[in-house]
Write a structure and sequence with these properties.
2 copies of one chain form a homodimer.
Chain A: H1 5-12, H2 22-34, H3 40-48, H4 56-68, E1 72-76, E2 82-86, E3 91-96, E4 102-106, H5 111-121, E5 124-126, E6 131-135, H6 137-147
Parallel strand pairs in A: 3-6
Antiparallel strand pairs in A: 1-2, 3-4
Helix pairs in contact in A: 2-3, 2-4, 3-4
Bound molecules: manganese (II) ion (MN) (2 copies) and zinc ion (2 copies).
The structure holds a DNA duplex (30 and 30 nucleotides).
DNA sequence: AGTACTATTGTTATTTTTCACAATAAGGAC
DNA sequence: GTCCTTATTGTGAAAAATAACAATAGTACT
């Protein structure tokens, strides 16, 4: 059977005493299928279609759990609120503070920095979804033209 | 008078129509004096000693405002909850997922990456308090010795 | 000092997120 | 399949964070 990789990961966690509940599977599946950032309540809504009386509490708890196990990524995307995403592909984000326009940054760009920090501190870093902020070219232009 | 730099910044904001309220000054002062990460409720508590009936709402609002204006920094420090800090010195953080041990990373370490991203994307980045996660040397050791 | 304008505050209500605890069900052993 | 252990769930309540709106008070101007 061709189960998605994240479900396989979840199965593997049983060796450590964790359990593969339908709630967990559903949440993971939602994130896999969407492949985008989702808020806890969006996840609750979508997963709730498969699991009749899924609780928000359970969603929060499992997002926490799955994030700790490295199956999902947390993103702080400016808005203040946290969103989640499948950990399928490693990438980071760059957001414009003004207009909200965003660009993905794939992990290779950060690799040299990660290596540098690892060498310097002895930590083993994990590639956890960093968000950078700045001003996009368009917005920077507007600022400049406004000046004169 | 030797007012702290951040109060000067706040004064400067009046040119843009913003106001320097005692609540704002108190919040900023608390962060300056502590020089550490503080949660909104801690800030409310401390600033409340100067401003008799300061509201939590006002604290949240002003932390938001001050962050947007670049006077305070937001940090996502693993715990899930957000903490704030004076923007006096530019630095970033590295946390151990296991034991919580943390190291400061000063911004020079990231400067090459920032330049790289700026060149590649055209964005002008701001140096906003990035938090990295990983496993510290001690915890990595324990993991290894446990294996055998 | 007094006035006018409006950014900011406190109040109240709502939403989002976390907690504690008893009831449930996943997974291993037989 | 049945039994046992305990990780995980739902429930109910608390805490943290946000929103709407009228009352307040900074600031510029006279
Ligand atoms: Mn992402
Ligand atoms: Mn910091
Ligand atoms: Zn922009
Ligand atoms: Zn550690």
């Amino acid at each position: 059977m061709s189960e998605p990789a994240s479900i396989q990961h979840l199965l593997a966690l049983r060796a450590q005493g964790f359990r593969m509940t339908p709630q967990r599977v559903a949440i993971l599946r939602v994130l896999d299928e969407c492949g985008c950032h989702l808020s806890p309540s969006e996840i609750h809504q979508r997963a709730g279609e498969m699991i009749p009386n899924l609780t928000e509490t359970t969603v929060y708890r499992n997002l926490d759990f799955l994030a700790q196990q490295g199956l999902v990524l947390i993103a702080h995307v400016g808005s203040g609120r946290i969103v989640y995403e499948s950990a399928a592909h490693h990438h980071h984000h760059l957001y414009c503070r003004h207009c909200g326009f965003s660009v993905d940054i794939n992990h290779e760009e950060l690799a040299p920095l990660y290596k540098h920090i690892q060498d310097k501190t002895g930590f083993i870093l994990d590639t956890s979804h960093v968000t950078f902020f700045g001003v996009c070219p368009q917005c920077a232009n507007k600022e400049n033209t406004k000046e004169n």
